[in-house]
Design a protein that fits this description.
Elements lengths: L1 E2 L1 H11 L5 E5 L7 E2 L3 E2 L9 E2 L3 E4 L7 E8 L13 E5 L11 E4 L4 E3 L2 E3 L10 E2 L10 E3 L7 H9 L4 E5 L3 E7 L3 E2 L10 E2 L2 H11 L3 E8 L3 H11 L4 E5 L10 H7 L3 E4 L1 E2 L1 E2 L5 E5 L2 E6 L3 H20 L9 E5 L3 E2 L5 E8 L3 E4 L16 E5 L5 E2 L4 E6 L14
Parallel strand pairs: 1-21, 7-8, 15-18, 15-19, 16-17, 19-24, 22-27, 25-28
Antiparallel strand pairs: 2-14, 3-14, 4-13, 5-12, 6-8, 6-9, 7-11, 10-11, 20-23, 23-24, 25-31, 26-30, 27-28, 27-29, 29-31
Helix pairs in contact: 1-6, 3-6, 4-5
Bound molecules: ligand LQZAQKY5 and molybdate ion (MOO).
Molybdate ion (MOO) binds next to loops.
Length: 403
């Protein structure tokens, strides 16, 4: 069945269910999807504390020479009480003593007999970090479905949370098919070429947060394809490339049908990537990508990426484009919706100078792609487009002002 891109994505989201849960220690939780809401159990800061190395003082003592007899360091469990006519020396992070109304930084004071002279203007609360001003106890900190990156791990660590419930990572099995293909660690003859799709998809699936298993390269025979499928059936998603078209050696569909694959679609109105198929055998999803390398990798981004997001348990599970404009005019043949790889520089998008479905080189120097509607033959300079990132990190080869 041939479908539009939107219908294909609908099939993916309607049929794909989030993975089961497991408990992980915080140190191993990077890039997992949180499977529970997290509420703060502690205020942060846990107590009013000094933002400066200086003196804890009273407002009425402004401009006076006050005596200094005690010092409080960060981590001290001090019970000093501040009284008028005195200042207590205090370090950054130390708990504010009772009676203190503000902190005066060390450099704003002068020495005097037995103490320091305070500035004329003091304001209440100055340089005091209040208990709970960063995180309030019982507030919702992180939501179920959030991806745990470094700055979410900060929040969990701040609460002394050692173990959390996360979704298991999608388990993906990969194999390619084609008698002409050899792996990079094998010898190629003059009629053969290296399998680039599998190493690419393996790396990309890992980048997208999957556990990945490489099943091998299947020959273009029904028996060998069946053998490879059988070895991959315990995964959540099998991704194959090649044998998707109508050639005399294209047996992939037949091999999957042997295992009773329910096919949701086997063609998409897209360029490149028309012979992309998606289906299911038991609880294992199947994404059969075309063999042409650029077609396979771009369609893996769009459909593979969406399946992985749907399986992951992520709340933000839909691909999103970034508003940008075309760097220069771009002409194309109208027909099917096209995926065009290129470079987004933070404001504008420039398509790759040279690309075709069978090429392997275009994506190595691209960082994104755009999707162009079927009827469009020209995109003018500055015309608005949506850029779908392939990798970010915003960096540049020449230092620019960051303001
Ligand atoms: N008569 C028709 N022929 C083709 C059609 C069509 O509609 N009618 N569609 C074309 C389109 S579009 C595509 S895409 C390809 C898809 O073909 P397959 O999925 O069957 O892929 P293969 O024939 O196995 O390979 C195509 C091409 O890609 C190279 N390849 C395959 N796998 C890899 C790999 N793992 N690493 C590197 N390169 C790979 C392979 O050598 C071929 O050159 O069909 C068109 N034909
Ligand atoms: O998928 Mo094909 O040409 O559309 O590469």
């Amino acid at each position: 069945m041939s479908v539009t891109i939107l219908q294909a994505l609908d099939f993916i989201y309607k049929n794909t269910k989030t993975k089961a849960l497991k408990i992980l220690p915080l140190e191993q939780a990077l890039d997992f999807i949180l499977a529970e809401d997290i509420y703060a159990t502690h205020n942060l800061p846990p107590y009013n504390n000094s933002a400066m190395d200086g003196y804890a003082v009273k407002i009425l003592d402004a401009g006076k020479c006050v005596k200094v007899e005690h010092t409080i360091f960060a981590g001290d469990d001090s019970s000093e009480v501040l009284t008028s006519g005195y200042a207590i020396k205090i370090m950054t992070g130390a708990r504010i003593p009772e009676g203190c109304e503000c902190i005066v930084p060390k450099e704003d004071t002068k020495e005097c007999q037995d103490g320091v002279i305070l500035p004329q203007n003091l304001s209440k609360g100055k340089h005091i970090r209040l208990c709970g001003e960063d995180i309030k106890k019982e507030n919702l900190l992180l939501q179920k479905g959030q991806r745990l990156q470094a700055h979410q791990i900060t929040l969990l660590a701040s609460q002394g949370i050692s173990h959390i419930k996360v979704h298991k990572k999608p388990r993906l099995a990969l194999f390619a098919s084609g008698n002409e293909l050899k792996m990079h660690f094998e010898q190629v003859e003059s009629h053969q070429l290296y399998n680039t799709n599998t190493p690419t998809l393996l790396a990309r699936a890992k980048e997208l947060g999957c556990e990945v298993e490489f099943i091998g390269t299947a020959e273009d025979t029904l028996d060998d394809l069946k053998e490879h499928i059988k070895s991959a059936l315990n995964s959540d998603l099998i991704v194959t490339s090649g044998g998707a078209s109508v050639g005399d050696a294209d047996f992939t569909k037949e091999a999957f049908s042997f295992f009773g694959m329910e096919t949701f679609f086997d063609k998409v109105e897209i360029k490149p990537g028309k012979p992309t198929a998606f289906g299911k055998i038991g609880n294992t999803f199947i994404l059969n990508l075309p063999g042409n390398p650029l077609a396979a990798t771009l369609n893996f981004e769009l459909f593979g990426g969406s399946i992985i997001l749907a399986l992951s348990g992520a709340r933000e599970k839909y691909l999103k484009g970034i508003d940008a404009k075309m760097q220069s005019e771009y002409r194309l043949k109208k027909g099917r919706i096209s995926l065009v790889p290129g470079t987004f520089n933070g404001s504008s998008f420039e398509p790759c100078k040279k690309f075709a479905p069978g090429m392997v080189s275009p994506l190595a120097n691209s960082n994104s792609y755009i999707m162009i509607d079927a009827g469009i033959e020209v995109l003018k300079k500055d015309e608005k487009v949506k850029v779908i990132p392939l990798r970010f990190s915003f960096t540049t080869d020449k230092q620019e002002s960051l303001l």
